[in-house]
Amino acid sequence: MNNNSSLSHRKEEPEKGILYIVGTPIGNLNDISQRALNILKNVSLVACEDTRQTIKIMNKFNISNKLISLNQHNSSIKNRKIIKDLKEGKSIAIVSDAGMPGICDPGEDIANSIKSEGLDVICIPGACAALTALVSSGFPSSSFVFEGFLPRKKIDRSKILLEISNNEKTTIIYESPKRLKKLLKELYEFCGGDREIMVARELTKKFEEHVGNNINEVIEFFNTKNVIGEITIILKGINKKRDLNLNKSSMKKDLNDLINAGLSLSAASKYLAKKNGVKKSEIYNLI
Asked: Do domains 2-127 and 130-238 have the same CATH topology?
């Protein structure tokens, strides 16, 4: 009760000594809130992932303020300066190139640094590509997994893809347009062509596009296209009982292929059991 009361009676924003994490549009500039505009206009300074991107918003809404860059290359130095400024009573806003700072960008580190100094961090809500795509997909959204950009290192990437292939929850993935086709092939290898998927491109922009319904169809759709724009992938979780029945013939073929390639029945069964999220004995029974 007391917490709700204090929130509803905060001082006029921006307050001194506060770091504001400000959500900005992911494409359509009209998605910015009046509260966000007020913060950007009246804080002591705005820390941007790229000042060239932030100035577009500032110019559109006739806002003038001091901008500094804050990115993965200078965050350790700039974080110390921001902490010093906050302790001196300045108010500071942080924005990313698009969407919510802290989601796959340096905003995560600065928020942690500020909190560890006993200073306050307030989020000004805004657009987020992950949630926008999730809600648009129609897939279960009460419980989901956000993976962001998958690791590049092969062993780490394979581990995550294996987890995704066995996940009963909806999975959200970010990917660059240049690497989309490679990722789709990997998802096909780990999840099968029938797995339900939606690839969202250019969310909130003029050429917004949703491509589905399964991995086979999406691969075919993008096969001959030059992919451009920001990409968010929504992958539906598996129904383990149903998918086991659908994949028995496929698993039996995989088992025979692995044995023919030189693996023992035990080793091949262990691998397929882990890949498909089933017991090793169920793979044995396919023989």
From this structure: no
